[in-house]
Amino acid sequence: MSTSFAAALASIVPPLGLTIDRRVNTSRAFPSPKYPRRVQSKAAASTSSDPNPTADPAEVYAVGETADDGEHIVSAAAWVVARQSSLDPDGRCGVFAMYDPSDNMLYAGYAKDAISAVRTYVEKGLGARVRVAIFANRATATRVNLRAEQDRWIGEWIDSNGGGETAIPPGNTAAGAADWTLPAEDWGEQPASSTAAAPRPKVDGDGNVVSPYAVTAAASVAAAADVKEELDPNRKLAELTVENVDAALNEVRPFLAADGGDVEVVGIEDGIVAVRMFGACGTCSSSTATLKGGIEATLFKVFGREAIKEVVNLDQGGEGGKGPMSLSVEKMEEHLKKLEGAIHNYGGSVKVVEVESGVVTLAFSGPLALAQSVASSIKGKFPLVKECKITQV
């Protein structure tokens, strides 16, 4: 089996560097995961009769600070607890992937009630961690769209792990499907889909993977960027500056304004362009599609993919939003203050020492696993953080 999904890999969140500096002058560098990490829940394989799994309060809080945009892998037990009270019963339709404690994909699927599905797998001990994309727009939450996104995730995983059949998640193979089969859900008149074997993803005429986000919520912005246009490899590229980025965004601003939104440039750091979407765009459930399908594509066209590593949306959703925050000592301290209670309960303490050039230094005391959890929470909230150095005191 050989399939190319290189284009899909561009949307993956950059890895987090974490260094633990000990008093005995030794350090340990943790491997950089493909996605942001969280500490595994102690209740990952729990079979408690409680309707929700038991989860670490710190993990539950960290999950609450992330968006269900398909770009985070978190504790499955903590996700169920956090989302049980925050997601509307009619807004739980989504795609999910279950992972083992080392973030190896075990199964990717979709469900009308993603919370119920993930809870079932947690109770069965089928996966300790989860990645979820909730389709908040009911018009796009069709089985066809959900299946297409499921296919993309599976293909993305296969492609990044050698491209062979052995890379297929075990739950998506014919041999392993039985363990992952859930009771049928009522989808009305929507056509049924098989969940037995790993399918091939839906692609366009150029062989590019088609995401339901790109073809629905961000259609007008993507059209403005003309993302399918074949670009001249010898075209003159603009210099990557704040002023030039702001000028380039004028191409998509009319389409954002038509939906009551706008975008501004916050800054550029090591090839990462930080923008802030506000108005209707800041709170729209499809803002990720708009960011990737329109804004990022436009900037790639103007500046080239070598100059721009990624475009991130800062402070998404305003003061009460769940999106990433711009990097500053004050906002970092504000974020850690929210974790203060949970950190204290686990015998730890943390203080911001320095924030410079994307490197955050913290003074920390407590268990090593708790330090990892704090670092992951910081990366999830502050995408411009390149490394989190934790000095044990």
TrEMBL record:
Q: Which residues form a coiled coil?
A: none
| Cited Pfam families | NifU
GO terms (molecular function) for this protein are:
iron ion binding; iron-sulfur cluster binding
Provide ranges: composition bias, Polar residues: 43-52
GO biological processes: iron-sulfur cluster assembly
Q: Tell me which residues make up the NIF system FeS cluster assembly NifU C-terminal domain.
A: 245-304
Q: Where is the signal peptide?
A: none
Lineage top rank: taxon: Eukaryota
Query: GO CC terms for this protein?
Result: mitochondrion
Family per record: Belongs to the NifU family.
Task: Give the protein's recorded name.
Answer: Iron-sulfur cluster scaffold protein, plastid
Its encoding gene is what? NifU
